[in-house]
Amino acid sequence: MVNVKGKWALVTGANRGIGYRIAKFMASKGCNLILHSRSLEHTAEILAEVRAMGVEAYDVAAELSDISQVEAMMNEIEERGKPVDILFNDAAVQIAYRTDYYKTPAEDYTKSFVINTIAPMMLCYRFIPKMIERGWGRVINTTSGIRNEPEQAGYSASKAALDKVTSDLAGKLDGTDVCINLADPGWCRTDLGGPNAPNDPDSVIPGIVVGAFVDDKKSGRWLGAQDFAGLTLEEAIQKAAAFPQLFK
């Protein structure tokens, strides 16, 4: 199992929902944190909480629909001189649920793709080469298991695109100690998932983070967090090792 104590993890969307739980869990393992949200006001609470757990942490802000802000955030992170060892691309947007889906506007796609596909990949493209130079790194891109719901076409299509570019990149990294995998939290009662979702957001632990801890140099797995609900991290790691790679 990977020891993340003293490493640095960037968590996008760290102020609430799944990202909040990722940040708290990683802090519990001694991992230092870079906490992203749209505004520093949003990360004040989680920043205080993880620092109280004894790890180093700071927060950054960027609106992911504005790639210039994403670029500025990445520059700030690099200027601070702390390596991004682990990248959790968790932040995402679900524009609308279109009951009359034949009237889905183009903007549902354009905004969804910028936030849910392009921004995460810009982060990957910036930080993965530096992970390769250092000889170690982990990337977990949060995906979705939505199927057969044209009501959410912009969201589901953008996540399917993220799956594709992630699995393609995984084929280039496989066998190295820089690993990229996908994690699906399942339908959870978060701001994005809504109050009618069947899963408590706490159920994503440890499955949503297990890709950061598996140490077999394999990339391209699709890890459904609900498949690991109730397991210890050690049990989750053993189970994750059996999951197939998407690009094979």
From TrEMBL:
UniProt cross-references to SUPFAM superfamilies, sorted A to Z:
NAD(P)-binding Rossmann-fold domains
Q: Which InterPro entries match?
A: NAD(P)-bd_dom_sf, SDR, SDR_fam
Can you tell me which residues the record assigns to a coiled coil?
A: none
Regarding protein family, the annotation reads: Belongs to the short-chain dehydrogenases/reductases (SDR) family.
Can you say what this protein is called? Short-chain dehydrogenase
What organism is recorded for this protein? Treponema bryantii
Recall the taxonomic lineage recorded for the source organism.
Bacteria, Pseudomonadati, Spirochaetota, Spirochaetia, Spirochaetales
